[in-house]
Amino acid sequence: MLTLFACIIAFIQPAKPMTELLPGVLVGEGIVEFEGTVAIDVHHPDTPIVYLEMFVTSPDSREHESLIVASIKPSILHAALLAAGVTPGQPRHKDNSGAWVDAIGQELLITVSTKELADWSDFERIENWVINQQNQTLLSESESWTGSVFAGSKINNSGPNAGYLADRSGTLISLTTFGDEVISPRWAISHEAEIDEPVWIASIDHLPTKGTNVKVRIQTVPDDESHEPDRIDIDRDG
Question: What sign for the dihedral angle of Cα 230, 148, 107, 119?
Answer without folding.
Answer: positive
